[in-house]
Amino acid sequence: MTYFVYIAIERKEAILDPQGKAIEHALGSLGFREIENTRVGKLIRLSVDAANPDEARSIAEQASGKLLANPIMESFSVIQVKTEPGLR
Amino acid sequence: MTYFVYIAIERKEAILDPQGKAIEHALGSLGFREIENTRVGKLIRLSVDAANPDEARSIAEQASGKLLANPIMESFSVIQVKTEPGLR
Questions:
Q1: Which residue ranges in chain A fall short of pLDDT 70?
Q2: Nearest to B27 among A49, A63, A79 (CB)
Q3: Element housing A11 (H / E)
Q4: According to the model, what pLDDT value does residue A87 have?
Q5: Closest CA–CA distance from residue A34 to any residue of chain B (Å)
Q6: Does B62 touch chain A (CB under 8 A)?
Q7: Interchain pair B45, A26: CB under 8 A
Q8: Taking residues B75-86, what's their average pLDDT?
Q9: Which domains can be identified in chain B, with CATH numbers?
């Protein structure tokens, strides 16, 4: 069965995020004064062939640890495992 | 009150994703044969000063439509509104 596994990869809070800062300034110029801070991360969707959702999650976590995330600067978390694409 | 709003930005299915393809091949080389398809999107976290979660969500949706997402190639969705950072 194919599972769609969504992985969120975020920079750790202590790491500067220039892309987030750029968006923050642009939103300020557009008049969004309520938006105080912006950070940009990656959202990776894997299609995993696995027997059950737990196995799909475990494969996605291994892939994140080995290739997708940089453990020094980033943290990752599996945010969704579903049989159909799309976040909720 | 400050709300942390997470926005997922994904390319539409019909749009090619070269970064996703590159990851797919790299995962194949590492032996992850169960992973069939990979797509990469953006995950944006906004800190929004709002009276309630619905207002925070609405501001984030306006910001996404005006600046963050390219409506031709991408679709966006607010995936979480919380008073603390971190996806679940």
A1: none
A2: A63
A3: strand A2-11
A4: 84
A5: 5
A6: yes
A7: no
A8: 94
A9: 2-82 (3.30.1280.10)
> B12 to chain A nearest CA, in Å?
11
* φ, ψ of residue A35 in degrees (nearest 5): -95, 115
Q: Is the pTM of this model over 0.80?
A: yes
For the CA atoms of B73, B39, B64, A39, what is the dihedral angle to 10 degrees? -140
Q: Which two tokens stand for residue B28?
A: 């194949």
Cα dist. A39→A12, A61, B19, B83, B85 in Å?
A: 10, 23, 20, 16, 11
Cβ of A84 under 8 Å from any chain B Cβ? no
Of A23, A37, A79, the CB nearest to B68: A23
Q: How many CA atoms lie within 13 A of B77 on its CB side?
A: 9
Q: What is the pLDDT of residue A18?
A: 96
Question: Are the C-beta atoms of A73 and A11 separated by less than 8 Å?
Answer: yes
Whether B10 and B40 have beta carbons less than 8 Å apart is answered as no
